[in-house]
């Protein structure tokens, strides 16, 4: 403004001051009207805010609730906005496995592990696309994170689970095999702290002031998913910051087919219906840097014989892939390391062009807690002989038997000579009828990409600087997992960065 | 309106948040105005008495025979209905079970106006979370009240008070449980609600006859057991259970037993719930059924098997016949024809109800209107099978019996709206011995036909019955005369139109081509008529001629407009036109009056022709007169002119020099003569068929129909295209030749159009005597008006006729 109005052309000093003063005032007014906030679209600053909080959290999953707890505990007022009629997002329907490196439970089982090993596993699965700093952070904080949940009252089973892509068994499993065990404790805590979790509150847009700072949100109250026409618009002011924890976009057909056109409506998803991209898109519009958005993970363990996550995956993940084998029904042969990372497995199954069949015996299924229900629903089937099993799935019986004999030999020899799969310490030969089998066909499960954050959970803008007042954590943030998220690392990621985001927002870093 | 929140403190967070949102949601509903939210049926009345449906519902919502509910509560409902009775669980919302359990509207919504908003907090005021969790703990698949979402979900996720409930879980799961909308019996172990489809077999039975819920569809076990203590015959026990009514309790129909002891002492009289309570549509039909109206019969008179009737039982044609013939004489009804055929196992044939109906057998009175209704209803029945090509082929029946009937006078006239007067199927094929005509038992056997015809016709000769009621013009073997008449008429039509249309087109082309070539050319002496000639008028038609022509025009149009709707009875415009003209009666009358006028004109023309040929009874020289220049008869010059005209068309010569009548004018005249012969005579036959039967056999009426119809087409289209071309559209006449109306034209026109006549007039020195004043303005105006109106009407009719001929 100075330059613009620095007039030096023969005006008297008084006149200069008078004129310049007037023009400068006019210029300022015009500036605030036209130059204003940098962005030319998105929600305008409201005339009046309906409510204000120090920290507003978007999304009521692991990350959002962790952020709310931390923010409130740091003395900030907070609120959690959730567009669905129920809280919890993907977190409350999640399988409740939680990667912890070098945990007391591992020690009790005599499993050697370390944060470095976890990081290595994550980077390997992530094709080294991971933002190493972020990945390293969660690996290092895994013990702290699980302890934090335990302090909220979450209970875990005694034994750790070995999930695909991990070099050792390391994953904690909640007592009810569901993320709800964690979410409900988080919800209890939030309630205890007096933070409202407002369901049916749909976040439409981030409002930035003229410096680009996230000043608040334009939302709809009383929204009834998925009816766009419902709800009334409200403006909420965030004095310190907005935490974006709105999860992934596995159920956003539009956005996910833009990122990966193969993932049309013909591909099912394990996610909750509200896993959509509008907040992510608005963050991008607000100037956030996109990271690897087209890396979308398919879960290799889901069954095509039921909808969504279903129950058959438990058999696949806990029995078939761990104690049994997965074969191509056309050849009766294994075709992949059943414990390879999700992408390798999902891609391999899709390459077959038809669902694979996983097989385990009565020993192998001992950890499948929902076996009876899965049998009842017909997702998992039980056979007295391998011949009957082969007949059911149209597998050539001799090659199948050969595959299983070979596998049993590898167990004796202590090494999978075909695919180098990790052998469980308690693995036994597949020789104890009855036999069980389930089909496997991938479904959209996780979206690795998202917006860029730093170690303080600040959202990094396209101007390479943190966007003031904007924080993100959980599935909406990209980079942590690189190309492939390892099983049980999402809970870890959400808890670690959710808490960080809450702390950062409260501290207004 | 302020949105005040009314949540109590200390509710679980979800409840609070969701409740809040819900309240806002509901508020916004009310915000749109209470009128909108509450204006439809049912109107929500706050102080409605629980069992009094009528306080909110204008329409009848429970069967009329249902015991009075106005004093009832839920427990009383459940004493008859099963808890999972789909009639309750599916039709009546949660709000009703609350009302019936003593929770009034205000119980949830408060006394305030507008009503307060109900959130989960309100529900939890009465329902305790622990109880709910416990109540559904054994529900198959999952406990909806204690899932990974915990026990504190918003009730409204699944249960809706004023609309159908939903299964929230199943957006991700595939659980089998059904969220019960209404009926809740707290403190009782939950039985799995039966899926709707299993619970309502009556409704899914193949033919849905019941349209309302039974008064009490439940089957209270004790009540049934009690009755069966004494009424133990199989039809009340196992057979009953398997029957279509097996879901009902004895007391559903047998009401009035309040005290079993009294009942056993026969002290109480039981009453029967009317079948109409459930079968309302049928019973409404039956109110007009002949059995109900005249014989005062009840359902049970025929339905003697209500206790044992199985779903899908009966329903065959044979079963119906057997039922009907328990009263109606077998000899009379099932010995021949359709019924016999059915009983022999042919389901294609018609049983009683196929023609008469089942519960809607109409009562026909002897009035003419009822006769018409009856005729039409039977015709519809006959046609429904006999026009079904697959069916008739299968049964070796004639494939065009309906179509060929429709081609006859009866068919067409009936079609156009005369069911009162014209024979339909059942007028000849009457009674139940419907058999081929060759069978002496048949009503259409020639021996019996006279009787049939006499029903409508009288004073005819026995030959009259030789009329073919289903004539087929395309069958040259069976109906040679008809076939050839038709063929001849069509050939005539084709020739006439071919010749004259070609003639007109060539003429038109030539004249315009010439005009085009001459455009802009300076007028030569030749083509500027001598000025005086253009204002000097001569007489062409006398008053008599002009009046005759006008009468001809009017009667002809009337004939076309009243006749063609019958010819094309099925066309879209036929009925419209008939109604425009005053209905079938009126058009019939107009057609006949016009026919008389035309006949009169014809006869008068004959008389004038005779006078012309034999002036003052003088015979000598008649041939000269006949072939002379003033005559309308064809002569040699016409042949020459015709050839000359074609030469002119093709630029091989000048236009011929015409005399007073051109050959096409003569053709027009003779067309009327020929036309009168064919159309007039056949018309008379159709008008007075009985009379003609003394001279001609009945099938001549068929011939007359064809001839009349085809000739009418020829005449109408000829006049509207060819005649109108010659006098209106031809280049030298456009837009019209008015001398037929004004009587006169200019000398210039005479000279140009009929040079030889002109020469002859000059030679005979008669021109001066023909000289007239120019036509007056009114007469010109009249000519223009009538002329243009006629052309337009004619062209419109042409379009209609072609439309009908091509598309119907
Ligand atoms: C079936 C299933 C099983 C899984 N199992 C495991 C496992 O065992 N271990 C593991 O580590 N990971 C698992 N995952 C992955 C993991 O659960 C998710 O990555 C994680 O829950 C993401 O948490 P979040 O807090 O980022 O988002 P979410 O928990 O998804 O929460 C985001 C919330 O934001 C809401 N939201 C979105 N948009 C808006 C908006 N515009 N306005 C307001 N609210 C909005 C959403 O409705 C949602 O409730 C599983 C995922 C699924 C689907
Ligand atoms: C109140 C309604 C619901 C009930 C009663 C319910 C019940 C259950 C139960 C009993 C399980 C354990 C596994 C099983 O036996 O099937 C389960 C798992 C699961 N539910 Fe639900 N559910 C409900 C709603 C939902 C919704 C709406 C979603 C999706 C948004 C969902 C997603 C899941 C998922 C993904 C699992 C698997 C978790 C795991 O085992 O890893 N559920 N649910
Ligand atoms: C706190 C709110 C709720 C209240 C007050 C409530 C009330 C009830 C009551 C009284 C019953 C009858 C149980 C019995 O027979 O005694 C019932 C059954 C049922 N409810 Fe709810 N409910 C609530 C929330 C829900 C939710 C959120 C769901 C969906 C997930 C649900 C699904 C069901 C189902 C499926 C049954 C029937 C189970 C069966 O009998 O098969 N309810 N509920």
Descriptive account of the structure:
In chain A, strands 1, 2, 5, 6, 7, 8, 18 and 19 form an eight-stranded mixed β-sheet that branches. In chain A, strands 12-11-13-15-14 form a five-stranded antiparallel β-sheet, sandwiched between helices. Chain A has helices at residues 2-5, 13-35, 62-73, 104-109, 115-125, 132-140, 142-152, 180-193, 253-259, 278-285, 312-320, 342-352, 371-377, 386-393, 397-413, 489-507, and strands spanning 51-58, 78-81, 97-99, 171-173, 196-198, 201-208, 214-221, 232-244, 290-291, 296-299, 325-328, 333-334, 356-361, 380-383, 435-440, 443-447, 450-451, 458-460, 466-472. Chain A folds into three domains: 41-89 and 186-297 and 445-507, FAD/NAD(P)-binding domain, CATH 3.50.50; 91-178, no CATH class; 301-441, Alpha-Beta Complex (Flavocytochrome C3, Chain A, domain 1), CATH 3.90.700. The longest helix of chain A is centred in the first third of the chain and has 23 residues, at 13-35. Chain A is elongated. Chain A is built from 16 helices and 19 strands. Chain B is mainly alpha-helical. Among the domains of chain B are: 53-204, no CATH class; 362-480, no CATH class; 534-807, Transmembrane di-heme cytochromes, Chain C (Fumarate Reductase Cytochrome B subunit, Up-down Bundle), CATH 1.20.950.20. Chain B contains 41 helices and five strands. In chain B, the strands form two sheets. A three-stranded antiparallel β-sheet of chain B has the order 4-3-5. Residues 1-16, 26-39, 183-208 and 216-220 of chain B have low confidence and may be disordered. Chain A binds chain B through residues 85-88, 92-93, 176, 178-180, 184, 187, 190-191, 196-201, 221-224, 230, 232, 272-273, 306-309, 373, 377, and chain B through 12-14, 16-18, 20-22, 24-25, 28, 141, 147-150, 153-154, 157, 168, 171-174. Bound molecules: flavin-adenine dinucleotide and protoporphyrin IX containing FE (HEM) (2 copies). The site of one protoporphyrin IX containing FE has 25 residues of chain B, from helix 7 and helix 8. One protoporphyrin IX containing FE binds at residues 120, 123-124, 127, 132, 135-136, 139, 144-145, 153, 155, 157-159, 168-169, 177, 179-180, 184, 186, 190, 192-193 of chain B.
